[in-house]
Design brief:
It is a single chain. This protein has about 70 residues and is an alpha+beta fold. It has a single domain, classed as Alpha-Beta Plaits (2-Layer Sandwich). The protein contains two helices and four strands, in the order E-H-E-E-H-E. The longest helix is centred in the middle third of the chain and has 15 residues, at about 15-30. The protein starts with a strand and ends with a strand.
């Protein structure tokens, strides 16, 4: 079973954290419909967020919609 890591398109700052939380909520709402599981959410040292899903990658059309890049 493979893991797929995606990174936020924008670093989380005091000014962007509300939007970042909204994007994370959108991802969580989509997981069941996409038949994906969430392995982890990590705030990196550079303030970008890494999200790991399994067992399949996010559909290509959903990556940008969810404000993510990757898989990385």
């Amino acid at each position: 079973m493979a893991d797929f890591t995606y990174r936020s398109q924008q670093a989380v700052t005091l000014q962007t954290r509300g939007a970042a939380y909204d994007f994370l909520c959108d991802l969580l709402r989509h997981l069941d419909a996409l038949n994906l599981n969430l392995r982890s959410v990590t705030l990196r040292v550079d303030n970008f967020v890494d999200v790991v899903v399994f067992p399949n990658p996010l559909p290509v059309g959903q990556v940008d919609h969810l404000h993510l890049t990757g898989p990385v």
